[in-house]
Each structure stands twice: as structure tokens, then as C-alpha cells.
Amino acid sequence: MSIRACAIIPSHNHHTALGGIVAALRGHGLEVILIDDGSGEPARTAIAALHAPEDGVEVQRLEVNRGKGGAVMAGLRRAHERGFTHAVQVDADGQHDLAAVADLLSTAAAHPNALVSGRPVYDHSVPRSRLIARWATHVWIWVETLSLRVKDSMCGFRVYPLAPTMAVLDSERIGTRMDFDPEIVVRLFWRGVPLIHIPVRVVYPEGNTSNFNLLRDNVLLTRMHTRLVLTMLLRLPSVLRNRPPGRGADAHWSTVGERGAWWGMRLVTLVYRLLGRPGCIALLWPVVSYFYATNAAGRRHSLGFLAQANAAKGLPAPSWWDGLRHHMSFAVKALDTFIAWAAPERTGPIAVDGAEALSRLAAEGRGALLIVSHLGNAELSRARLGTRFEKYINVLLHTRHAVRYNRMIRSVRPDAADHTIQVTDIGPQTAIDLKERVERGEWIAIAGDRTPVEFNGRVSRVPFLGRDAAFSQGPYVLAALMGCPVYLLFCLREGQGHRVTFEPFAERIELPRRGKDEALAALAARYAQRLEHHCLRDPLQWYNFFDFWADPKTGPR
């Protein structure tokens, strides 16, 4: 769906970063509505000077300070009057990484009825008091929404769908100060508006001043939560009936939220140090059981895949217990990955099939492309085998997922994140960078079982477990550009350790000018056949929890 979006910036005495923020937003093609919320000098004059309707910047001044929420509401109403369908709320203090605007807008375009909100990824500059206060608010929000799906309700960097937002503003009494951001999230959630979170880097600039009034705003937040809890109890049947569904079958893999957190992994790491791997697994069982019971979409996709795999093996349909084991297998895989980076010597034995060819390649100083998958634990093999082959193994990872992943890995192995390449789609500049790395003798790992984030037809539908599935052409196009050897890498858990299998795929891929699509489809079919072979060894180690056979362009079949 085509959306028409603008940006709204509420400001009260913030002006030093505004010029750069406005320029960045205009660079994304957004018209800007800047609300001066009763600022004094010199901010008043500086903000007024930005008014340039002919350049897509409108400044509206509120003579009496209404608070952040009041300013945002004034901006939302003005955006609606001007015919915009969506509005991007951006704080005026420069804390948010505006490079994420493109990610927010593309997600809003794909899900026009959803509220798309940033989910802060903080660096060391964040005050600890802010983190504690946010967690306290999160707990209240979970109570008020009867859901854990609201991962962050206080981020002032989000895209509002204006039609349902205006319906709330026209019929509900919403807080006008720092209580606005969390309250509007709850009110929209109660009306069935889905909430999608996008990780966004947040910094606290040196010299940054806050309009948060410790006493006044904490009183307002307390009153707000009391009001919302009471309202929720009074409207309980309606709240339960209208809650938005979880991310369903039509979600592209890249938009499926990660149901975990950095702090959760840190807790597991602490338990691991105290109780070891058995203690961690004991802790994971009740956590995984809860998420399995409450995640209908994940449960459906898990059982759907297992049914397909069982049919290929001549086995009966999977049970509810099989789906729970599937989810638990994923949790253990995540634990093993974290341990592999933090304490690789404790991950158990790792057997390697086909290592001779890779050893020769490493000895010759040649680069290579490794096509991996979300079957088994390719990341564990990267953590363990990079040292064995004395090679940098760079992995391409979707930008949205890479931010939080890098933060987790950097906390235990600072150098590992340096070899995680964040991409949304592989453009010319990325291809040049990858080719240069290969020419230096580095190895590149790319997933062969995920379709492009920016769909543009570069997939081939080929047989996989008895049905046609979409496989990306990207790995083979990239291999042709780099002119390097291509290997398949599979890493599956066996007993107390893992077995890594390297399979030569092509010494060099050359694509013909005529019949290129047919050649790419043949390569994708070869890969799908090998993926299926390894997948049937242990289907519970398959970690694509979405409708794998859906058409990435038209949705689920």
C-alpha cells in the first residue's frame, strides 16, 4: 500500500540539533511539521527561522506550553488536516539514529494499519535511572494490555497511522505531557492496532537537557497507570476481544519480532556461570513453554513445517509436544551460540566433514562464499572455526536484527561484531565491499534460505519438502560477481557436540546472458535439495518460524 507520510517534531526549548534533524528528515523525502511548544529565547527565534513552506518545513507555535503530548497531538491534527495518512514522531534533542527512518517507513508501508515504534538500543551514555524507570513502566504496560507484545512504550520515535490515532484523540482523554507516549500506545492496542518494534540506536548527547520534571511527570505517570488499569478492568471484555493479533502468516521473515531481550540473555549467562548448561536449560523450559503457549503464529508455523517434514519422512503428523520441543531446540541453539562466543571451549566437541578443501583454500590465501542456513547453528561454527582456519568469516545479517545481535555478541566478544555486515538489500556498494574482502582472502557467509527484504523479483520457486518455496537468487548472483569458490555449510547438533559439514557447491559460478533466470533457478534448486537432505536429519533444528512456502510478493498460500 502507498502511504503519504510527514514528520512531526515537538520542541520546547530544544533547538541546537533541530537543523540537522530537519535536514535528515527532508533527505528521506518527508515534509516536516515542527511544533514550537511555547519555547523561550533563543529557541523561539531559532525554531521560527526554520519555517520554509516552499521547502517542505512548517513551523507552528503554541504560545502556551502544552507539554510534549499536547505538542504531538497538535502536530498529528495538523498532519491529518493536510491529508497525510501517517506521521513520523521525532524528538527534537537528537537522541535517535535517523538512519532508521527508512526502516520505519518501509515497515509502515508494508503494514499501514500498524503503529511502528522504535525500540531503543542504548549505548553507555544512557543514565541508569532512565533504564530503571523504563522497566517499571514496561511492567505496568504489560498489565494494562494483558500482553508482553509491547516491548517499549516510551520511545518518541514512531510512525502513527493517522486514521485510528485520530479516532483515539477524538474520543479519549489522553495525557498531554510525558504520559502521552505510553498512554497512546495502550489506547491504540486496546482498539486492535498492531504494534511493530524496530531496533533504533539511541544516544544521550553531551550537554543534553531534558524537559522531564522528576516530581510532576512521575506523578502524572502514576496517575496514568492507575487510570489505565482501572479502565482496563472496566472494559475487560472489549480489551480482550479487540487485542491485535500476533504477527501472522503474512509477515515477511524480516519483520517477525524477536521474542527475547539483551537483558534476558545476560540473565541466562549469569545462570550459566552459576549452574552450567543444565541449569540454563532448566531455566529455559518454563520460559519457552510460556512463549509457546502465547505465540499462536509461531506455534502454527512450527507445526506446519514439522507436518511437511514428517510427511516427507513417512511419519505421522506432529503433536503439540513436538512443537514445544521445536521451540525449545531454538532456545538451546541460542544459548549454545552465546556460549560459543563467550566460552568456546565449553560448547562440546565439534566434528568437521570436508575440512580438507577449506584448509587448502585457507593455506592458499583464497577467499570464498559460504552459503549457510537457519538449519542448525551456523553461528556456532563461525565462532569455533574462524580460529581453526585462521580466517575472518564475515556474515551478512539483516540490519533490523543485527543491531541487537551485535550488542549481545559485543558484550562477550568485542571483535566478533566487527565481522557482522548489516544490510537491508545487497546494492552495488555492498557488492564492491564484499568483493574486496574476498580478494583479501576473507570468507563471506550468506543465508540461502531467506528471501530478499526489498522484494524485487529476485527469487526462484523450487521444490522443497514436497512444495515449491521461494529461494533467493542473491547468493548465486553475488558469487558470480565475486568469482570465488562457493561452499555449503551445515552445522547440526549431535549428542553433546556439533557436526559441521562443508560441501563444495561450485569452484566458480558464471551466469549466462541468455537464460539467466533458468540458470539461477537451477542453482537454487540444487541448494534446496541439499538443504532438504540435511533438514530431514533433524527437523527440530529448523529455525525459520514463519510460513516458508508463502510467496514473498503475494503473501501466504
From TrEMBL:
Domain of life the protein comes from: Bacteria
Keyword set includes Glycosyltransferase: yes
UniProt GO molecular function: glycosyltransferase activity
Annotated Glycosyltransferase 2-like domain residues: 7-128
UniProt KW Cell inner membrane keyword: yes
Compartments, as annotated in UniProt: Cell inner membrane
Stated name of the protein: Glycosyltransferase
Source organism (scientific name): Azospirillum argentinense
